[in-house]
Amino acid sequence: MLILGLQVGMLMAITADKILSALEDERTAAQRGLPFKVLSSRRQGNLVILAVEPMRDGRSSAALDDSLEGARAVWYGQSNGRGEVVVVDPDKGEFALRFVQGPLPDADERFTLYPQDFITPLIELWQREPTRKKAAAALRRSEKEPAAETKVLPSDFSMLRVRQAQAVSLPLNRVGLLHGPPGTGKTFTIGCMIAYLLTRFRNAKILISGPTNTAVDSALIAADDWLNRIGRDDLRQSMKRIGSRFDTQKFRGRDHLLAKGIYEASLEISMLELEEPSKSGIERYVAWKEKLEAARAKLKTDVAHISASSRVVAITTNSLFRHFDSIANPGVGAWHFTIADEASQIMLPAALMVASIAKCATFAGDPQQLAPIVQSDAPSTQYVLGRTAFDVFKDASSVFLNEQSRMCQGVCDVVSHTFYGGELIVCRKAVKDPEWKRARSAWYLDGREIPRVLIDDRAGNATWSKKYNGKIRFASAEIIAALVHELLGSYVEAADILILTPFRAQRALIRSMLGRQGQKEVRVSTVHRAQGSERKIVIFDPVDAGSPFLNSETGRRLINVAASRAQAHLIILASETDLRNPFLSAISDRARRLWDRNGEYANPLRVRLRQA
């Protein structure tokens, strides 16, 4: 048994055997697929668009986000069909499928999504002794001396904030942690890191990874922008994106970043996998299998070639584990640095395997926000796979980006003191920028300035709705509808408002109410889908903040995500019970102290409910 020497608190040590057991349990849970109900289906060019809603099967129902891109969709009605998810639109609750085989599914028909299987390749890597030992050795790497000395940054990087400048040299450590709260310019800093490493070390090879296509694309494009900014077009040609499911629109004018042949070869394999014939026609099946194996072999060779000839390769962690032998092969040359973005969503076994590839590993993310998604309900699996690099490398060199330019002073103060120990502040440059302040100027209702953080405590209690198949709270939805009506009549644009709730049923109820008012253009979303979004006015309805879920560590992170989307105003709908939630209580107390000082909070602003 290989002991990793990892303990979290005073709980059990995590061993390689426990990692394998957790991964196998998670694979079993994932193989059950994710059930959805079709609301409608239509063809749009070569794509099929499905409007859907998740179904419950004893587990937590699935979230619609870009982690489902690449999933295989299968439905069984009067006729069977299948396709591959190419785009997820969380706001509309829609999937775009490509390579569809068979007739379209009917409304109310059930279909199942089978996400890309990155667990099996990861299990195989942990089963091999050499790769397992390298991954385990990464845990002790933070004890070693840095790979190179920190130097004063060239003048090309003078526009960086103080902590951003410190973070640029973080990859020189054997393990580095970059804490990037909302609005602190984490992706901008990662791009600068990559540009700096390429210019300082003539032969450095850098591997960029992340759990989603969005994270990987953003990091690579940020690096491309930095190299363009400092006039190093020669180095821009040395960076390549490996994959087939990224948004090609983002790469318009950046053809030099696309690995020639990789995208097309990956598409061919996806099409072949969906065309799998029945084994009853053995000759046809064998011909199909040989064609698929040849396509996979060619892709493997192409990935190895791109990895060997490029100085920077960007790839999702899912694809990395499938192509691990091609990318980590000594024949492609040593990887000096690996940078993983959104690392707070990368489960521990994956993070250790990523770290094993290069001499120095940097993990960037925000451990105070969303954690890895684990489908298994087993406590031991949740324990092992719910950990991240931020949990196990606590002694590693780290930089906390403390200046943010998203939230106004009032919202930032509340979020900072509730979730970040008071360390998060408004960027000094932003405070002096008239345009930044104008964009976050206060809005008014009934001639009164809306507090930067407003708690409306008339929300009432949650109930279970059979119609909406989940928890709803009619009173808070009614307040939100009235609030939106008043805001849109006070020069606020629909695009300035974001309504968030943890529960899909409440989202559906709020959308229905706004639809009856003719205000469908206002965005209503679950919190999980909103990470990365921001709006001038955010309205958060927790629905049932007294539940164990919202009182847990997961609940704390989720409330943080909701609160930190707001640029100018955060409005929270709450009941007496909700305000006993420790996180909402802390927000309320801080907001009350702030507005007491300004004499505004004593007579709280409340929107008048509309008469039926």
Which CATH architecture of the largest domain? 3-Layer(aba) Sandwich
How much strand? 15-25%
Lateral arrangement of strands in the main beta sheet: 11-12-10-13-14-9-15
Rounded average pLDDT: 90
What is the CATH domain class of the largest domain?
A: Alpha Beta
What's the count of strands? Answer: 26
Rg from Cα: 25 Å
CATH topology of the largest domain: Rossmann fold
Helical/strand content category: alpha/beta
> Helical residue percent?
25-40%
Number of helices: 22
Largest sheet: 7 strands, parallel
CATH homologous group name of the largest domain: P-loop containing nucleotide triphosphate hydrolases
Number of domains: 3
For the termini, the CA-CA separation is: 68 Å
Note poorly predicted spans: 7-11
What gross morphology would you assign? globular
Could you describe the 3D structure shown?
The protein is globular. It contains 22 helices and 26 strands. The chain folds into 3 domains: 34-114, Thrombin, subunit H (Beta Barrel); 162-404, Rossmann fold; 409-597, Rossmann fold, CATH 3.40.50.300. It is of the alpha/beta class and 612 residues long. The chain has a 7-stranded parallel sheet with strand order 11-12-10-13-14-9-15, with helices on both faces. A 6-stranded antiparallel β-barrel has the order 3-4-7-6-5-8. It has a 5-stranded parallel sheet with strand order 20-26-25-23-24, sandwiched between helices. α19 (504-516) links the parallel β23 (497-501) and β24 (523-526). α1 runs antiparallel to α2, α8 (262-274) packs antiparallel against α9 (282-309) and α18 crosses α19.
